[in-house]
Amino acid sequence: MLHLEPSAIADVIATGGVIAYPTEAVYGLGCDPDNLSAVQALLDVKQRPWEKGLILIASRFEQLLSYLDLSAVTEQQLTAAQAKWPGPFTFVIPAKAEVSPLLRGSFSTIAVRVSAHPGVRTMCDAIDKPLVSTSANLAGEEPALTLAEVETQFSGKIAAVVLGELGTARQPSTIIDIQTGHIFRQG
Fold this sequence. Notes:
By secondary structure, the chain is an alpha/beta fold. Helices cover about 25% and strands about 20% of the residues.
């Protein structure tokens, strides 16, 4: 398993690699959201059912636009979401019809976040697109909080681990429905 700086992940992502990386609160697993083989590999490694859907993280909102159907989102709703970004808030937003079920799960929406974590922002800028983001753990287990935990769970199963520090958040991000304001998970 490679150990890479955040700015050095572009080749691994471009070739369909699954990576582990520090986020605001826990280590995440990620890959190119447009490479469905990579997304399936990530789901397989994590043992996560596709029906649950995944989160996309970005360094800026514009990186998410090709996945979102904003026609049913009011300007007020969008402004409220953007006021919380970058930060530990994930919004569930209607997805474009062509977004794969591997990303959106059994829903017509997709969960997205503009991250404040410097390593995540560097990675998304290096590939100029969002990354898939899900906690680095096997389904039902606690998320990895250290590099050693990532290596124990995923050695030989992922392409690389991105070096860096976890953020100071103690809980994964809050997840909010942008249209209704319903909170699915409190961070």
